[in-house]
Amino acid sequence: MDSLNVFVLSAGDGLWTWAVLPILVVLGLYFTARSGVVQFRLIPEMFRTLTNKTPLRDDGEPQSVSAFQAFTISAASRVGVGNIAGVGTAIAIGGPGAVFWMWTMAFIGGASSFIESTLGQAFKVRDKDGFRGGPAYYMQYGLKARWMGIIFAVVLILCFPLSFNSLQANTISATISSSFGGEVGWIPWVVGGVLAVLTSLVIFGGVRRIASFSQAIVPLMALLYLIVGIVIVGLHIERLPEVFASIYTQAWGTQEVAGGTIGAIIMVGAKRGMFSNEAGLGSAPNAGATAAVTHPVKQGLVQTLGVYFDTFLVCSITAFIVLVATPDLANAERGIALTQNAMVDSLGSWSNVLLSVIIFLLAFSSILGNYYYGESNIEFINSKPAVLTAFRVVVVAVVFLGSIASADLIWNTADGIMGVMAIINLIAIALLSGIAFKLLKDYSDQRRAGLDPVFTRARMPEVTGIQCWEDERSVTGAIPLAGREGVKRG
After folding, report:
1. DSSP letters for 287-327
2. pLDDT band at 172, cuts 50/70/90?
3. pLDDT band at 195, cuts 50/70/90?
4. DSSP code, position 83
5. 361-392 pLDDT, tens per residue?
6. Residue 110 forms part of a structural domain
7. Residue 391 is part of a domain; what is its CATH number?
8. How many domains does one find in the chain?
9. Can you give the pTM of this predicted structure?
10. What's the CA gap between 292 and 476, in Å, rounded?
């Protein structure tokens, strides 16, 4: 098992060093420049579109999930192990400087996130629950390359509902075991069984049940975690200036921590950052495509906000919890243990139980979000109900087995698969980015005219393969065709 883990780690590091990171940075900078720094310039629009009303069907019911619900589905996947265990791992390996590179990659990746989620909306399709879509769909309908979409779908299924869900389950199990004082042989089996039952109860209910659960749990748990983090930072407020200084000065490898040369610091920051915020990875568009909005750019903006919510808020509070409470990172434990120890040292042993509850709910919501990404791509490959049922059974089994598996092997396998998935998606959005820029211009033109932007495919007749967006009535739902002139800037 050790030799397999070493091989997987070596292969994954090579892929990230020579392929994923260079492509991610170059494309992110290109998208930033071509879009006029959309990820910063339109931050006010991100908040405005997050609360837009959901277009209705003729029967008065929502066409699909709302922009906010789609945001929480993607946040359910983003906000979890990566924000707590992943940040702890990054700091243990790369020191405080890894946090700087997580922030930097989140900002650069915000432009990639905007492009991919806008394309996910543009090329979405209708299903029985409303809409579905994602990279596999824009590869088929935008690039006319179904073969590429199938490859991406297979890799995503291996990555999210299988590898990442194993990791989420493993972290829940490790956290609860630690709360009981260490290794207790029966705990992982019990945790795995409970997780498997809870997962099956939700995923067999479809995307609307997942959206409802995520909408209720994710904001509440994220807020609770942020409050705990602020309290811990407040207890060590005198160390905050030193922490900020270490994040910026050690980002350049001036003080090595656990082998944290500048290359290692950048790499671990980039990998853990992408695992957490998923910018450019090709996962968030699967959630973003489910939303019923009146213009594709709206959900592109909302999903970019999700990157910031994940990294600049939740990941940052983990970093501050660790760094203010753990001045000496020499021989620091990796993963969730580093964050746990920092909380216990600051608040006492009771905080271990609180963190276990937070981890359980955040990681469980991630399991559901990851599952939905897989469901959307299973249906892309084969829409037979029996195939979807079999997939759900496999996901439940993986959640159970992940609770008792080796954490190191799961982390390294997930990193490698994530790298392959990112490369496929980044190539696709690079080829299709011209469409996203045209959509951004159309959105901006309508906003300048004082309108609440509405897109129909007739506005871009040169783009083929768009499956929805047939006419204004079908897009807006409750807004009559003749009454659009009255929909002014709100």
Report:
1. HHTTB--SSHHHHHHHHHHHHHIIIIIIIHHHHHHHHHH-S
2. confident
3. confident
4. I
5. 877 878 887 888 888 899 899 988 899 899 99
6. yes
7. 1.20.1740.10
8. 1
9. 0.86
10. 9
